[in-house]
Design a protein that fits this description.
Oligomer: single chain
CATH architecture: 2-Layer Sandwich
Radius of gyration: 11 Å
Structural class: mainly beta
Number of domains: 1
Strand content: 25-35%
Strand order of the largest sheet: 1-2-3
CATH class: Alpha Beta
Helix content: 10-25%
């Protein structure tokens, strides 16, 4: 099992700075998601910045979330 998210901070260009429960910090780029269904709402920068940690992953007010394993494996 991969580490879960402890802290998230939105960055410019649809990126998220993530702090994992194991102390690692990585950056995840959300731009590849923006053309898909529910994630299209994230193109609104004000909405994108409403990201929060919820149950060990990142989530937005209207229910969009990203699997924490994906966040860990696909972040740099």
């Amino acid at each position: 099992m991969n580490p879960r998210i402890k802290k998230v901070q939105p960055l410019p260009n649809y990126r998220l700075q993530l702090t994992f429960a194991n102390g690692e910090q990585k950056i995840y780029n959300c731009s590849s998601l923006l053309d898909f269904g529910v994630f299209q709402e994230l193109t609104n920068k004000n909405y994108f910045e409403q990201v929060q940690v919820l149950d060990g992953t990142v989530a937005w007010p209207h229910g969009q979330d990203i699997c924490p394993d994906t966040l860990y494996l696909m972040s740099s």
